[in-house]
Amino acid sequence: MTIYNYLYYIILPVLAVCTVIIFVRFLKGPTLSDRVVALDLLLTTGIGIIAVYSILTDQPSFLDIAMILALIAFLGTVAFSYYLEKREKNE
């Protein structure tokens, strides 16, 4: 079994199933924190899918896109934690 077969038949289906499960968690999340964590995890799964696609197509430029997406996800998480901290101080 080559690395390409492993990526096609094991990694991509696992990432697809994870994406569906995380999206359900995003829709059903009882609190805002649950939804933000699910959104962050969706972005991380998307980064994994982009990385696998980059390996399969042998185009390393997609890894730059994945890195930018990771930075945006990190900044979003930091902004949300800052918002929660300010909200707790006001209450």
TrEMBL record:
Record's keyword annotation contains Iron? no
Cross-referenced InterPro entries? MrpF/PhaF-like (IPR007208)
Q: How does it sit in the membrane?
A: Multi-pass membrane protein
Q: Which Pfam families match?
A: MrpF_PhaF
Q: Which residues cross the membrane?
A: 6-24, 36-56, 62-84
Q: Which GO terms describe its molecular function?
A: sodium:proton antiporter activity
Classify the source by domain of life.
Bacteria
What keywords sit in the KW lines?
A: Antiport, Cell membrane, Ion transport, Membrane, Transmembrane, Transmembrane helix, Transport
Q: What's one GO-annotated cellular component?
A: plasma membrane
Q: Where in the cell is it found?
A: Cell membrane
User: What PANTHER family does this protein's entry cite?
Assistant: NA(+)/H(+) ANTIPORTER SUBUNIT F1 (PTHR34702), NA(+)_H(+) ANTIPORTER SUBUNIT F (PTHR34702:SF1)
Which family does this protein fall into? Belongs to the CPA3 antiporters (TC 2.A.63) subunit F family.
This protein's name: Na(+) H(+) antiporter subunit F
